[in-house]
């Protein structure tokens, strides 16, 4: 591939990726990345009564995403974005975690949804 074309494509995809990320943040969407033994970010803050969509991706293997307080359970497949939309109706701290065993350290694959009033 022509070097100039490659650089142009790379720059264009970076600009588009940044614009999509900014758009996602402005529409009350939060990106969460799953990987062996952690979620990033581990803590997600939202407001009670406001709809939020969690865009969950995996960088290494199939993980689960479970948030019992809001009846959420889904698989996270590498290379795909799983959209989880909730409208929290209660204030507090609520656990989310992986429920697909991924080896020693699996129990650390967890996070907290903080719902503020």
Structure in words:
This protein has one helix spanning 3-26, and strands at 29-35, 38-40, 43-47, 52-58, 63-67, 72-76, 82-86, 92-97, 110-116. With 117 residues, it is an alpha/beta fold. It has a single domain (2-116), classed as Immunoglobulin-like (Sandwich). The strands form three sheets. Strands 2-1-4-7 form a four-stranded mixed β-sheet. It has a three-stranded mixed β-sheet with strand order 3-9-8, with no helix packed on it.
Provide a compact summary of the structure.
With 117 residues, this protein is α/β, with parallel strands linked by helices. The chain has one domain (2-116): Immunoglobulin-like, CATH 2.60.40.420.
Question: How do the strands and helices of this protein lay out in sequence?
Answer:
Blueprint: H1 3-26, E1 29-35, E2 38-40, E3 43-47, E4 52-58, E5 63-67, E6 72-76, E7 82-86, E8 92-97, E9 110-116
Parallel strand pairs: 1-4, 3-9
Antiparallel strand pairs: 1-2, 4-7, 5-6, 8-9
CATH architecture: Sandwich
CATH superfamily: Cupredoxins -  blue copper proteins
At the fold tier of CATH, the topology name is Immunoglobulin-like
Q: Encode the helix/strand succession as letters.
A: HEEEEEEEEE
Uncertain segments: 5-11, 13-26
Structural class computed from helices and strand pairing: alpha/beta
What is the helix content?
10-25%
Query: What proportion of the residues form beta strands (DSSP E)?
Result: 35-45%
Radius of gyration of CA atoms, rounded to a whole number: 16 Å
Biggest β-sheet strands, sense, barrel: 4 strands, mixed
Report the total helices.
Answer: 1
Biggest sheet: strands side by side, in what order? 2-1-4-7
What would you call the shape? globular
* Total beta strands: 9
- The overall number of domains is 1
- N- and C-termini, Cα separation: 54 Å
